[in-house]
UniProtKB/TrEMBL annotation:
Full protein name: Beta-lactamase family protein
Domain Beta-lactamase-related: 21-314
Source organism (scientific name): Salipiger mangrovisoli
Alphabetized PANTHER family for the sequence: BETA-LACTAMASE-RELATED DOMAIN-CONTAINING PROTEIN, D-ALANYL-D-ALANINE-CARBOXYPEPTIDASE/ENDOPEPTIDASE AMPH
InterPro entries: AmpC-like (IPR050491), Beta-lactam-related (IPR001466), Beta-lactam/transpept-like (IPR012338)
């Protein structure tokens, strides 16, 4: 049993929120214990200058949805954890069909992320796509990011497939959510698309050169991130879930196939705060941030929901929880641990950029913190890293795999001509290369960008706000990759 200083937590929450303009978008922090409200702090507005946010304000929960899908799957019992996905979705290609339900839930399936795969084919974030077409297209992809059970790497793709598999067995996620929400008196709601009406939903805000604007996305919202509700709704849902056996199973991390321990379970991750391992999850969608932590033994939950892109809901939750427990996160800011710049593995598509206090791996940034004996590490169980700089190279572990990354020298690309001239096609998408320039997109969306060499047949190029890695597999075959999708291939025409 761990004592809770809710007064200290209240003060910590208010300190976290006070840095924001009271008239702009903000966040709500809410804590409960044994069904009783213990903490409520709110700052900001539903719209700039509009109604004030409070515990009943409705936000998108983004990836917080994942643990709800896991609860639905476990309660229904129609998809055994050891069952391969192909048993419920026979149209799947052999590689994804062999991934088990447990591996898909625990980010161990190597399944490519749907959104990032679409990016690699030139789809913009606002381009609308529907569930049936996405499933049919995904089913035909017979490649994985990694061998199942060998790494924990975040991807939404498995949850989309699991939602479809549940429906094939007669369990429709949106209907299950509506039934649970009705029983508990909650406003928890599952949407199909961003444009679907959600009662009371506050707009999400992203900041640009001219100030705040509303976030949006066009891709169908799967059970990887389709839920919305208030902070009160989420806290009461957790209060009902925590005593159930499903929660205990979800919060038990799934080891890798080798038996190596992880800190990610079934839609839940475990974070160490002081001497306590705390279950929770976070989520992000354009203009929204969400996060929660909970301790089932004390029936205690802390929820943070924000309608701004820089809301850092998971960080706020962790810092407030630490103050509540009169402990600290054991996270010391990292200094200069490696020379800033680009690094790449000797082969394959693994690359990284070292930044002050962070590292971007395949264009996904993670904060780093000082560990012992000169090591640095991440705090996210779904993107575990433990690294150090030795003789100019970055060595250690990423995603539970050993890594060695070498600095990318400024001249290594000058001696390596791309030899990629021509037009390339991948699943109907086209790109053109001439010398060290790549043309991406068509018509008014077309952009002409430079290829930045990483060495050994790999280049980076910017597209749609991302840095994509192009890897030459053969003279007339290349692969494009991002952090969550490493399977999209193009062939020279």
């Amino acid at each position: 049993m761990f004592d809770a200083d809710w007064a200290a937590a209240q003060a910590a929450a208010e300190e976290e929120l006070e840095r924001w303009d009271e008239q702009g978008p903000g966040a709500v922090v809410l804590g409960i214990e044994r069904g009783r409200l213990q903490l409520l702090a709110a700052r900001g507005r539903a719209e700039c200058g509009g109604a004030a946010l409070d515990g009943t304000s409705v936000f998108r929960w983004a990836s917080v949805t994942k643990h709800v899908l896991a609860a639905c799957l476990l309660e229904s019992g129609v998809l055994p954890l050891e069952m391969p996905l192909g048993a419920a979705l026979p149209e799947l290609a052999p590689a994804p069909a062999a991934v088990t339900v447990a591996q898909a839930l625990a980010m161990q399936g190597g399944l490519p992320d749907t959104r990032e795969s679409l990016t690699l084919l030139g789809f913009h974030a606002l381009d609308r796509t529907d569930a049936a077409a996405l499933l049919a297209w995904s089913a035909g992809i017979d490649r994985l990011n990694a061998e199942p059970g060998t790494e924990v790497a975040y991807s939404n793709g498995g949850y989309r497939l699991l939602e479809a598999a549940l429906a094939r067995r007669g369990v429709v996620f949106a209907e299950w959510v509506a039934a649970r929400a009705g029983r508990l008196g909650l406003g928890m709601h599952a949407s199909e698309h961003w444009s679907d009406p959600v009662p009371g939903l506050v707009p999400g805000h992203v900041v640009g050169q001219t100030g705040w604007s509303h976030g949006a996305q066009g891709m169908h919202l799967s059970a990887a991130g389709s839920l919305s509700g208030s902070a009160e709704d989420l806290a009461l849902w957790l209060a009902d879930l925590m005593p159930r056996p499903e929660f205990a199973r979800m919060s038990r991390p799934l080891p890798l196939a080798s038996g190596q321990a992880t800190s990610y379970g079934l839609g839940l991750r475990l974070l160490q705060i002081g001497g306590e391992m705390v279950a929770g999850h976070g989520g992000a969608q354009p203009g929204y941030r969400a996060g929660f932590l909970c301790a089932p033994g004390e029936a205690r939950a802390l929820v943070v929901l924000s309608n701004r892109d820089d809301g850092d809901a998971t960080g706020i939750a962790a810092r407030v929880w630490a103050r509540m427990r009169s402990t600290r996160l054991r996270r010391d800011a990292v200094g200069t641990w490696a020379p800033p710049g680009l690094y790449a593995a000797p082969g394959g598509d693994l690359w990284a950029e070292v930044k002050p206090g962070a590292i971007s791996v395949r264009d996904a940034e993670e904060a780093l913190f000082a560990a012992s004996d000169g090591w640095v590490e991440s705090a996210a169980p779904q993107s575990m890293m433990r690294l150090r700089c030795t003789d100019g190279a970055i060595v250690g572990e990423m995603f539970h795999k050993p890594v060695r990354l070498l600095p990318v020298s400024a001249g290594n690309g000058e001696a390596e001509a791309p030899e990629l001239d021509g037009h390339w096609i991948g699943d109907g998408a086209l790109l053109g290369i001439r010398g060290t320039r790549l043309r991406w997109g068509a018509g008014p969306r077309a952009t002409d960008v430079a290829l930045t060499p990483l060495g050994n047949g790999r280049w980076l190029f910017p597209a749609m706000g991302r840095r994509i890695c192009l890897t030459r597999l053969a003279p007339d075959r290349v692969r494009l990759s991002l952090a969550r999708s490493r399977v999209v291939e193009y062939r020279r025409l």
